[in-house]
Structure formats: structure tokens, C-alpha cells
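User: For my dataset I need records formatted as: sequence, then C-alpha cells, nothing else. Please produce one.
Assistant:
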Amino acid sequence: MKLEISASLNYRLPEPVDLMLQIEAADGHGQRVLDASLDLGRPDLMARVPTANGICDPIWLREEGHLRVAYRALVAIDRPAADLAALAAVPLHRLPAEAVPYLNESRYCPSNKFHAFVERRFGELEGGAKIAAMRDWIESRFTYVAGASNAETGALDSFVERRGVCRDYAHVMIALARAAHIPARMASVYALGVEPQDFHAVAEVYLAGDWHPVDATGMATADAMARICVGRDAADIAFLTAYREIELVGQAVAVKAG
């Protein structure tokens, strides 16, 4: 499948601001960028900083007055939608080094607080079957409500309130998976089927020797999403991080089959 992607950002900057931008679809790992363009205007400073995971290269900017960004890409998705329930867990002692950090708690995913619930609710299941059951449980019990959470909302808050947006669903999915000793991380993606269309957040779990996207909202499938970047939780995958106050003027994301 090919995805045609476009994203535009327009922010007013009351004073000179340092920013980190992560909006470009990654090349590789189940997808190929066939064509892409990125217009940043004329920032005072621009530099790419490759990440340790090798999936994305965040852009550091220094800008003043306005930030206007236009991004377009055509991406071929070579990633099948795997049957999660058929995938085996990897024994902890056989995990690759790059997966091990994603067993641990992180800012928005206090997985140690979910051990008792995971054992009680999903303890009879193993590997991918456990992950699939967790995904179905979240989708069936949570309500997607725009504005129900904020930058401080973590997995425990969302678990109690049973509502939120994509990042909240992903945080709970990640926390449950880590509580079951299955590596899990967060990915920012462009995806078909997301309503309202925006930068979308999903979980990724390490099963059967590879990372597999898991969208607990039920809106997107692995074969119809283009990964942007990955990290421990929302703190690592924000599409835009500003190190001073900025003002939103307008923002739009569109994804369609190419």
C-alpha cells in the first residue's frame, strides 16, 4: 500500500524560540519513502540530530516571528498486519539490547503499578494472545474523547477515567504490556482511518523477534500506517517541542491511499 501524506504547521512565536520537529515519515523498518518534500521557510538555525534507535532524525530549529512548516510524502508500506495472537513472546534472556529498555517504567507509563491487574485479568494468556486481549480490552472499555486529557495525563490517570485520545490509549497499552514483561514503546504515525485526522500515536510491542504496531483505538492497522518516530512514551515522540511559549495559528494533517 502507498500513502500520500501532507502536514502543515503554523505557529506564532512571540520571541525567538528553540524547537524540535519530528514530522517526517521514517525510511525503512517496513516502509519506504518514495518521494518527500519539507519546507521550513528560513529558520535562523537548523540541524538534524540522529536518534540512537536509528528510526528518525529530529530537526532542531531556532526561529522567531512565525514557524511555518509544510511536509508532503509518498510512502510505500511493506509491513503486513500480523495476527498478534499467533506471535510468541521472546524470553527475557534472549531479548536484543535495543528492546530491553522498553521493559521499564517511563514518565507516562508507570507499568509497575499494573502488575496485579495484568496478572488477574490476563494471567492465563501468553505472548501475542495476551497483547491482543489487552488491546481488545482497552478498545472496548475506553471512550475516545478529544480534550479529555492534557500534557500531564499518564497511563494510570487514563486507566481510572477510561477515556482519552490516541496517546492515552497507547500509554495504557504500553503500561499493560510492560507489566506483562513484554517490551513496548510508543510510535508517532501517519495512518489511514484516523478520525479526526492528525498525528496519531500507537503502541509497538516486541514479539517473535520484531516490533509490531498495536492501535488500541481500533482506528488504524499496521499495513496502513507510516511510522514517524518511536520512544518510551509521548515525551519522546512529540511532533513539535518548543522550549518557550508559542501560539497555535493552524495545523492540518491529511493521509490518503496513493
